[in-house]
Amino acid sequence: MATKIYTKNYAKMVADIFTTQQHFFNTFGGGLQTAADAEYNENFLELKVSPTNVVIQDYDTGENVAFGSGTGNSSRFGERQEIKSIDKTVKYDNPIAIHEGIDRFTVNDNYQQIIAERAGLHARKWVEYLNKYMADALNENAGKELTTSLTEEAISKLFFEARKEFVNKKVSTGIAWTAYVTADVYNILVESKLTTTSKITAANIGEHTVSKFKGFVLRELPDEYFSENVCAIFVPDNVGVVGLGLEVYRLIDSPDYNGVAIQGAGKLAKYIPDENKAVIIKATIAA
Asked: What is the DSSP letter of 248?
C-alpha cells in the first residue's frame, strides 16, 4: 500500500494560514508554535519558571546589626531570599483527527485537484478550530469578571472599569490592549456619542467602524467565540502561547475502494501563566 506523508509541509501550511486568518494572534504570542512529534512527546513546552516576588525591605542601621553583638549573624540588608527556578511542563490536550476518502469512480471531478483542495480546506479548518480553542482559553482563564448591560452608558462604564483594572495592575502601555467584543457591543460603540468624529479620529461612521475606545483596540468577533452571556474580553498582548503538535498528515491508497484515504491527526496545547490570568477580564451581561 502506497503512503505519502506530508506532515512537515502541512504543518507549515497551517502556520502560514494561522498568521493571516486567526483572531487572537497577538494575544497568544504573535504566532503558532508547531511541532511534528506529538505522538512521541506528550509535552508541549518545558519551562523554567522563577515565581519568587521581589521584596523591598528597610536597611537596618542598628548598632548591633552586622556589627557589635550581631557581627557574623545578621545583615543590615535584611533577610536574604533564595531564588530558585522550578520546572513547568505544559502538556498537550486530547488528540483530534481528520479522516476522509476520495474514490476515483465517484468523485465526479479532477481527482488530483480535489486532493489539493482538501489539503487547503483542512488547514483552514485547523485554524478555525484553533480560533475557538484560543477563545475558550480566554473565557476559562479570565481572572476577573465584570457585569454590564447593552446600553451606551453601561458599555462606556464597562470600558472605564476595564481600563482602571489594567492601570491599577500596572499593565504596560507599551503593549497593545485589546477588547474582543460581540457585534452588539461593537454596534453600541459605533453609534455612541463618544465616538463622533468631533471627539476622536478612530471612528468611521460611514464604514461602521471604530478602531479604539478608551485605550483598547477593538476586535469585533462572532458570538461563538464568547461563553454564555459574555459580551467582551479585555486582554493585553502576549498573555500566553498556543501550539499545534501535528503527528501526521498523509494519503493512503485504500484497499477498500479505488482511491485514497486522507488522514490527519494532532494535538493542541496552550499556556497562560497564572500571573497573566489576572489581566484577562471578561464582561457578562447582567440578568
From this structure: E
- pLDDT tier, 36 (very low <50, low <70, confident <90, very high otherwise): low
**Which whole number is the average pLDDT over 264-285?**
92
Residue type (1 letter), 140? E
Indicate the angle between helix axes 7-21 and 111-141, nearest 10 degrees: 60
Q: Residue 192 and residue 214: Cα distance in Å, rounded?
A: 13
As given in the structure block, the three cell numbers for residue 156 are 462606556
Radius of gyration of the chain (CA): 26
Q: What's phi and psi for 150, nearest 5 deg?
A: -90, 65
Percent of the chain with pLDDT over 90: 47
- Looking at residues 244-262, what average pLDDT do you find? 90
Whole-angstrom distance, CA of residue 204 vs CA of residue 206: 5
Checking if the pLDDT of 208 tops 60, the result is no
Please give the tally of structural domains in the chain. 2
Q: CB neighbours of 263 closer than 8 A, spacing ≥ 6?
A: 97, 98, 99, 248, 249, 250, 252
Domain of residue 63 covers 54-84
Note whether 217 and 179 are within 8 A (CB): yes
Residue 33 and residue 65 in one domain: no
Average predicted confidence (pLDDT) for the chain: 86
